[in-house]
Specification:
- The chain is an all-alpha fold.
- Helix content is 68%, strand content 1%.
- It is built from 15 helices and two strands.
- It has a two-stranded antiparallel ribbon.
- It is globular and about 45 Å long.
Length: 295
């Protein structure tokens, strides 16, 4: 795609691309129960912003990676994200009935099948990761595992559940969200950055700094939208955090300060991209989208 085309066009092309990759990847499961495959496909296909794959593709552009090399990592991070949503929505977790504008996976398929669909998606994500047309370094699998595991997304969700109805300091809240939300966003960006030429001096550290700030910014905006958004605009239940008495950036900082914090994180993210110059255009645009979105 020509680099001067509008960001919206670029994003729509990559969204269509990863949708096709996911569709193909989840299309052939010889011997797998049909209902399980149906639940897996329901949890992943036909919805969502695909923000994590977009970040992977944009990071790939920094290192001159062809999109077809990024396809595997992009699909992998989206499968891990989709599995986490299927599990988070279960009655034993957040007990939600709406996700991406449609009934949650357990509402559509039952709790047991939604649980198994999430399990299978997590496993399948690693198969997608190693399907890249250019072999990724061995640490790519370790990075995705760490992002999804006890020191990442799963650990952050555990901390979240343990603090329902309890106050949290800003440093503790930030630490939780670096795990719960930020870890997979960071992995999406760094995995995309592994798909092309080797990093030059200082580039990986700069990309990591961007990833950490962007991941937190996404969560801060999510907390703001939980207060200001609607079920229709979000595609999920609005006001859920307040109803469950969960600590958020809004409850800790207040709404105006939470919005300022999101902008400060955006500025921090963009500052980290300065060494990349024009090659970071799509990541800059994604950082703006993360902080300006309304859904």
């Amino acid at each position: 795609m020509h680099p001067d085309l509008a960001f919206a066009v670029w994003a729509q092309e990559r969204q269509r691309r990863v949708e096709e990759v996911l569709d193909r990847s989840l299309g052939g499961h010889d011997g797998a129960p049909g209902k399980l495959v149906e639940a897996m496909r329901y949890a992943v296909l036909g919805g969502g912003k695909r923000m994590r794959p977009l970040l992977a593709y944009a990071a790939g552009e920094l290192v001159d990676a062809s999109p077809d090399v990024v396809d595997g990592p992009a699909a992998a991070v989206e499968m891990v994200h989709a599995y986490s949503l299927a599990h988070d929505d279960l009655p034993c977790m957040d007990d939600d009935v709406l996700r991406r504008g449609k009934p949650t996976c357990h509402v559509a398929f039952g709790e047991a099948m939604a649980l198994l669909a999430g399990d299978a998606l997590q496993a399948h994500a690693f198969a997608a990761l190693v399907s890249s047309r250019v072999p990724l370094p061995a640490r790519a699998c370790a990075m995705l595992a760490d992002a999804a595991g006890a020191a990442g997304m799963a650990g952050g969700q555990a901390i979240d559940l343990l603090h329902v109805g309890k106050p949290m300091t800003l440093p503790d809240l930030t630490s939780m969200h670096r795990m719960k939300t930020g870890a997979l966003i960071r992995a999406s960006i760094l995995l995309g950055g592994m798909c092309g030429r080797s990093f030059r001096a200082g580039e990986e550290a700069s990309l990591d700094a961007f990833a950490r700030a962007a991941g937190l910014a996404f969560q801060v905006v999510d907390d703001v939208l939980d207060v200001e958004g609607s079920d229709d605009s979000l595609g999920k239940t609005a006001g859920k955090d307040a109803a469950q008495n969960k600590p958020t950036y809004v409850t800790v900082l207040g709404l105006p300060e939470a919005k300022r914090h999101a902008q400060a994180l955006r500025d921090e993210a963009l500052a980290a991209l300065v060494p990349f110059g024009a090659r970071a255009r799509r990541l800059v645009e994604l950082a703006d989208w993360i902080t300006q979105r309304t859904s």
